[in-house]
TrEMBL record:
A Pfam cross-reference name: Abhydrolase_2
EC number assigned by the record: 3.1.2.22
UniProt KW keywords: Hydrolase
InterPro entries documented for this protein: AB_hydrolase_fold, LYPA1-2/EST-like, PLipase/COase/thioEstase
Entry's transmembrane regions: none
Superkingdom of origin: Eukaryota
Domain Phospholipase/carboxylesterase/thioesterase: 14-224
Protein name: palmitoyl-protein hydrolase
Native source species: Echinops telfairi
Similarity annotation: Belongs to the AB hydrolase superfamily. AB hydrolase 2 family.
Amino acid sequence: MASGSLRLQRNMVLPTGRHSASLIFLHGSGDCGQGLRKWIKQVLAQDLTFQHIKIIYPTAPSRPYTPLKGGLSNVWFDRFKISNDCPEHLDSIDATCHMLTELIDDEVKSGISKNRILVGGFSMGGCMAMHLAYRKHPDVAGVFALSSFLNKASAVYQALQKADGVLPELFQCHGTADELVLHSWGEETNWVLRSLGVNSQFHSFPGVYHELSKTELEKLKSWILNKLPGDMGK
């Protein structure tokens, strides 16, 4: 771990059997790892668990957040505003990529190869996961983004224009009634990523707001098991 860097607090769900894959699940703005885990447990009426996959729910460090007029919040990065047509706050995004890279490195050191690691998240967490995977770790197993979007001139798009080789598959979900992160922003993000060579799935959920739904989480669970099957060797 780099000296002087901040180590992320993490809440974990250990596999019930032999650990052969890992999943990093990033919360939305103002939440925490434990909060996201509790929310998922509420929606599913049980913890999200796998026989062979360790789930890591890290907590974003507290920082001044511009949409809250500079008030402190657990956010992965700062935003100038919650909109898809403003510049990204790349300094804070890149600082978090560095912290999350240390988390990925810890899994690799424990014997989990990069192609057995999934990254994803809800809302801001999904956006962060796309930056982490497509700009810094294109060799992970896949990415998921729930109720998330990328800004129109995102550094992710710029990176993908220069990318060569296989890109991680994207699993994206969005509620049609979302008033905070518009469904159209999610759709546009998906369309641009597909045009840049990303193999992706986009699932719309009629009447769902800026929230997690049981159907969505069950679909996500199936996708996770498809990307990280349990009968792998090591």
